[in-house]
Each structure stands twice: as structure tokens, then as C-alpha cells.
Design goal:
By secondary structure, the chain is of the alpha+beta class. It folds into two domains: about 10-50 and about 155-290, no CATH class; about 60-145, no CATH class. The chain has helices at about 15-55, 65-80, 95-105, 130-140, 150-195, 195-205, 210-245, 260-265, 270-290; strands spanning about 55-60, 85-90, 115-125, 145-150. Strands 2-3-1-4 form a four-stranded antiparallel sheet. Helix 1 (about 15-55) runs antiparallel to helix 8 and helix 5 (about 150-195) packs across helix 9 (about 270-290). The longest helix has about 45 residues, at about 150-195. The radius of gyration is 31 Å and the shape is elongated.
Length: about 290
């Protein structure tokens, strides 16, 4: 016997009244976790790239701007002769002041404050050039020169960020498990409400697949509604979070933005949640009906 329409009034169940709200809340948490995960990945990629072959040289401030120019010129010439140095880039005074603003505020732009000269260099990590060796070489040219190897401290920061990414991924996994458990509970509750109808359908020849499809279709619709609502709730929160990051202060953290890949990842939550709800409801109904026979 074939059934071409639903014989179950699932829309009127009390279980379907609160399930969309639960799914919306779960989707909200998942969207925030996934967006946070991808933004952390943006930041860690920047730090990881900078830690690969970048070293910073800080030349102490001289007695005058002319003295600073002479010291910096000597240093640039000397660096070109050092084996393992691939590229040298002098950081302008304007950039140095911008880097100091988060700590010194407007005072960083004052002409009365002596500014060290900074040179960024890229080195060949396969060579035997190290920060200690550079310090010895450059210290003979300009005493007090400091060499900072980014890889030594950025590596720990990158590992910390990756740990945070793993935590965010675990949160998404736990949210998925909670969603599956909620759908299982509501599906079984709905089956209990319609148990007499299910027995009649079985008696007239309805297959388990047909009954499971009724619950699965309803779960898919509820999943779409709830997850779409969760994304709508998450959108203003994500924009507010991005605004806070952008105004946190230049130089403190690399810029992380809600780019297209993040929005695609967040948008994919809607069909994924709907499919999870549909498959969970279907498998729950089939397993329950097999015990019924």
C-alpha cells in the first residue's frame, strides 16, 4: 500500500514547539565557535608566517637624527655582508611610533622621545645564522644593538592559538552531540504521542520507511527553521565582536576579519544541522519500530 501524504499531525505536537528554539540556541553557539575558530586561524597563520624567517634588529637611539641615520646605514651595509641574510627592510619612524601608541598613547609621537631604529630582516633558516651570532657581529658595529628572533616566542604563541582552535572544535562537536540527543528525545516523545496512529498504519501495511520519512521530513523543516534563526541571532554578535577587535588597538594583534570564508562556514551550519536532524529522526524511528514488531 502506498502513502503519498503525511498521516501524522506532527506540526501540532508540543515537542515541535520548543525544538526550533533549542536548535536555534545550539546553532548560535556553533556559529560563534566556528567563526572564532576561523578568526583564530587567521591570527595564528600571520604569527606562524612571521616566525618562519623573520628577525628584528633594534639599534639604540643616537644623540641626533643624523647620528641615527649613520648608525642605520652602517648596519644595513654590514647586514648585506652577513651570510644567511636574505632581505633587509628598515622600519620608518612613523611605523615605529604607530607600534608604540598602544603603550605610550599620544606621547609616542612626541619629538622629545628618542626612538630606536628598527630593521626587519629575513634569514635563511638552513644557514648557521642565529640571533646570538648576529648580536655579536652587530654589537661590534653599534654597541647595545638588540636582536630579536621572532621564532623563539611566536612559536609558543602559535601553539597556544592552535590549542584554542582545538577547544573551539571540541565545542562544536559537543554542540552537535547535544543537538542529536535533543532530536532523539523529541522524536521518541513524538512517537509516543502518535503511538496508536503508528500501530494503525502498521496494521494497514505502512512500511517503516514511510513512517520514518514523516518524522525525518518534519525534523528537516524544524532543523532549517531553528538553524536559520540561530544564524540571524549570531550575525549581530559576530559584527559586534569584529568591531571590538578592530578597535582593540593597532599593533596588539593582527587584524582578523569576518571574510567570505567565515561567512560561508557559518552559513553551512544551516543545511548541516537540518540534515543531522533529519538523519537522526529517521534512524531513531526505524530502530524504535523494529522493537515494536
Amino acid at each position: 500500500m502506498r502513502f503519498n501524504r503525511s498521516n501524522l499531525a506532527l506540526k501540532k505536537d508540543d515537542t515541535n514547539r520548543f525544538l526550533p528554539w533549542i536548535i536555534a540556541f545550539m546553532t548560535l553557539l556553533a556559529a560563534l565557535s566556528i567563526a572564532g575558530l576561523l578568526m583564530l586561524k587567521q591570527i595564528s597563520q600571520v604569527f606562524e608566517y612571521n616566525s618562519q624567517d623573520s628577525i628584528t634588529i633594534q639599534i639604540p637611539a643616537g644623540e641626533s637624527s643624523d647620528d641615527d641615520e649613520q648608525r642605520t646605514s652602517k648596519m644595513l651595509v654590514a647586514l648585506k655582508k652577513v651570510d644567511g641574510v636574505v632581505e633587509t627592510t628598515r622600519v620608518s619612524n612613523a611605523e615605529i611610533k604607530k607600534l608604540l601608541e598602544p603603550w605610550l598613547g599620544q606621547t609616542a609621537g612626541s619629538e622629545t622621545i628618542p626612538l630606536p631604529q628598527i630593521i626587519d630582516i629575513k634569514i635563511d633558516r638552513t644557514s648557521d645564522l642565529t640571533a646570538e651570532k648576529l648580536t655579536r657581529i652587530l654589537g661590534e658595529i653599534v654597541p647595545g644593538t638588540m636582536v630579536d628572533d621572532h621564532s623563539q616566542w611566536l612559536a609558543n604563541l602559535v601553539n597556544t592559538l592552535k590549542s584554542a582552535e582545538l577547544i573551539a572544535l571540541c565545542i562544536v562537536f559537543l554542540i552537535a552531540l547535544a543537538t542529536i540527543g535533543t532530536v532523539i528525545f523529541t522524536t521518541r516523545t513524538g512517537m509516543g504521542i502518535h503511538w496508536q496512529t503508528l500501530e494503525v498504519l502498521h496494521f494497514v501495511g505502512a512500511h517503516d520507511e514511510f513512517i520514518a520519512r514523516q518524522f525525518a521530513t518534519r525534523a528537516f523543516i524544524v532543523g532549517l527553521q531553528g538553524s536559520a534563526g540561530g544564524i540571524l541571532l549570531a550575525t549581530p554578535i559576530l559584527y559586534a565582536f569584529e568591531y571590538i577587535l578592530k578597535n582593540l588597538g593597532s599593533g596588539l594583534l593582527p587584524k582578523a576579519s569576518l571574510n567570505s570564508s567565515i561567512w560561508i562556514g557559518v552559513s553551512c551550519i544551516v543545511p548541516v544541522v537540518a540534515i543531522i536532524a533529519m538523519m537522526t529522526a529517521r534512524s531513531t524511528v526505524i530502530k524504535t519500530l523494529k522493537k515494536m514488531v
